[in-house]
């Protein structure tokens, strides 16, 4: 009898608390039959993929999109991002560990514009949408360019639906953060109305930076990776632009460039135009100061012998001819490592997908990038494998910037989708330091 009474007290308190919470919540819950798919990742609900309500916004989501139960109630990834990411004034101290919430610089007043060069189809959704989400949160305008500029680009459908990935779909598919970010990206006006590569090249001085996402499905990726206009755009981004694009000291004058996975291949195939003179290290030397004007007349009261000679121009660092060389020549970079690409190729063939993960069957990404570098040792693989079949959690996130990236001046490169939160964060840092 005593236990029964305690159970009744507990249940009455529980239901009273739930009713009070629901009454105080101004946002109504979506009815269970309002959607057959998750409102964030768009995957269909099944008897295994159950419906869950976000206790903050009331939307219907799957369990992967509502994993945030650290607080009092379950919340979806979108609400968690909105509450976790905090904007800070430019030049304020970075919170690399994110102990007090994830902090991004508020760059809205700087009116920066970053170009995203993407293919018409088959790019990786995470590698594009996660950096986009972080840049947009910081007030940076992101403009998308495709080969034709006539239709909205589309990502690799397998990475958002899991179709064809069979029993490994939960491991190989884009994670919940990537799928949710991609769904938000699809609603962005700049994404729905891209410009063409030719238009982006014509307006080259408008871009304060560029991002080159990757992907591996050959039909859509090859036209983007091999497009000569994209190569011209990337090459021009590595040369001085307008006055705001150059450092005052003349060092690393090119605009910020970010690339991930196969996007690094696109950068490696971009060559400097003929006549490009760069100093040792790949930097454009600052122009010498103008010589002071001299006249033949001697100032009144001054003897000719006392006239001061003109100051000699300071010597500049030795230059080297970079004509026809890759923009990555002399740079340290990373991209999809050989050991990781081979593992993905084996998995793809095991699933009956053939060379789905092997964009260029006669070579590999590490070789394609390495042959364009000054030294093969300039390619850095990273110390730990980015993912294994039992450790999918090695992807980075807003809570743990554990992704592997390589920064060389204003160039930032990454390996795979699991590095993209870190890539987006460091790209923002480069943008802030460059244009502040």
Topology summary:
Layout: H1 2-24, E1 52-53, E2 60-61, H2 77-84, E3 85-88, E4 102-105, E5 113-117, E6 121-123, H3 125-137, E7 141-146, E8 154-155, H4 158-161, H5 169-172, H6 176-185, H7 189-192, E9 195-196, H8 197-202, E10 209-212, H9 218-225, H10 228-237, E11 257-260, H11 263-268, E12 277-279, E13 319-321, H12 338-350, H13 365-370, E14 405-408, E15 411-414, H14 420-435
Parallel strand pairs: 3-4, 5-7, 5-10, 6-8, 7-9, 10-11, 11-15
Antiparallel strand pairs: 1-2, 12-13, 14-15
Helix pairs in contact: 3-6, 3-14
Given the C-alpha coordinates, what overall shape results?
globular
> Radius of gyration in whole Å, from Cα?
27 Å
- Helix-strand category: alpha/beta
N-to-C terminal Cα separation, in Å? 71 Å
Beta percentage is 5-15%
pLDDT < 50 stretches: 13-26, 91-101, 293-299, 304-315, 387-393
Can you list the strand order of the major beta sheet?
A: 9-7-5-10-11-15-14
On the 0 to 100 scale, the average pLDDT is: 79
Strand tally: 15
Enumerate how many helices there are, as a single number: 14
Order of helices and strands: HEEHEEEEHEEHHHHEHEHHEHEEHHEEH
How much helical structure, as a percent, in the residues? 25-40%
Characterize the main sheet. Answer: 7 strands, mixed
Give a verbal description of the structure.
It is a single chain. The protein is of the alpha/beta class and 436 residues long. Helix content is 30%, strand content 12%. The chain has 14 helices and 15 strands. It has helices at 2-24, 77-84, 125-137, 158-161, 169-172, 176-185, 189-192, 197-202, 218-225, 228-237, 263-268, 338-350, 365-370, 420-435, and strands at 52-53, 60-61, 85-88, 102-105, 113-117, 121-123, 141-146, 154-155, 195-196, 209-212, 257-260, 277-279, 319-321, 405-408, 411-414. The strands form 5 sheets. Strands 9-7-5-10-11-15-14 form a 7-stranded mixed β-sheet, sandwiched between helices. The chain has a two-stranded antiparallel sheet with strand order 1-2. A hairpin with a 2-residue loop joins strand 14 and strand 15. Helix 3 (125-137) packs across helix 6 and helix 3 (125-137) packs across helix 14 (420-435). The longest helix has 23 residues, at 2-24. The N and C termini lie far apart (71 Å). Mean pLDDT is 79; it is low at 13-26, 91-101, 293-299, 304-315 and 387-393.
């Amino acid at each position: 009898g005593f236990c029964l009474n305690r159970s009744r007290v507990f249940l009455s308190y529980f239901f009273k608390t739930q009713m009070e919470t629901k009454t105080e919540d101004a946002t109504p819950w979506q009815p269970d039959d309002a959607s057959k798919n998750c409102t964030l990742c768009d995957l269909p609900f099944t008897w295994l993929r159950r419906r869950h309500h976000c206790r903050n916004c009331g939307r219907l989501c799957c369990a992967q999109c509502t994993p945030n139960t650290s607080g009092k109630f379950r919340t979806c990834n979108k609400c968690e991002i909105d509450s976790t990411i905090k904007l800070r004034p430019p030049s304020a101290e970075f919170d690399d560990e994110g102990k007090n919430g994830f902090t991004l610089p508020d760059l809205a007043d700087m009116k920066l514009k970053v170009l995203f060069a993407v293919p018409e189809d088959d790019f990786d959704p995470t590698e594009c949408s996660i950096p986009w989400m972080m840049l947009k949160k910081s007030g940076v305008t992101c403009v998308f360019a495709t080969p034709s500029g006539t239709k909205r680009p589309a990502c690799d459908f397998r990475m958002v639906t899991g179709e064809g990935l069979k029993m490994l779909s939960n491991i190989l598919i884009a994670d919940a953060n990537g799928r949710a970010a991609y769904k938000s990206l699809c609603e962005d006006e700049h994404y729905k109305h891209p410009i063409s590569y030719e238009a982006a090249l014509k307006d080259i001085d408008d871009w304060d930076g560029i991002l080159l996402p990757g992907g591996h499905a050959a039909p859509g990726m090859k036209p983007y990776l091999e497009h000569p206009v994209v190569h011209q755009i990337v090459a021009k981004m590595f040369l001085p632009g307008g006055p705001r694009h150059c450092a005052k000291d003349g060092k690393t004058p090119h605009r910020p460039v970010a690339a991930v996975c196969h996007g690094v291949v696109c950068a490696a195939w971009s060559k400097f135009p003929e006549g490009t003179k760069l100093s040792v290290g790949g930097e454009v030397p600052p122009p010498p100061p103008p010589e002071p004007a001299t006249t033949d007349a001697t100032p009144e009261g001054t003897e000719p012998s006392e006239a001061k000679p003109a100051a000699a121009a300071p010597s500049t660092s030795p230059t080297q001819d970079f004509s026809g060389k890759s923009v990555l020549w002399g740079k340290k970079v990373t991209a999809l490592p050989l050991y990781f690409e081979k593992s993905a190729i084996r998995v793809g063939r095991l699933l009956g997908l053939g060379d789905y993960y092997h964009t260029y069957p006669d070579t590999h990404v590490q070789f394609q990038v390495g042959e364009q570098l000054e030294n093969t040792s300039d390619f850095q693989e990273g110390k730990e494998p980015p993912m294994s079949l039992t450790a999918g959690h090695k992807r980075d996130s807003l809570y743990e910037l554990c992704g592997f990236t390589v920064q060389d001046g204003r160039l930032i490169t990454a390996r795979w989708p699991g590095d993209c939160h870190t890539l987006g964060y460091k790209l923002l840092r480069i943008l802030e330091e460059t244009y502040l």
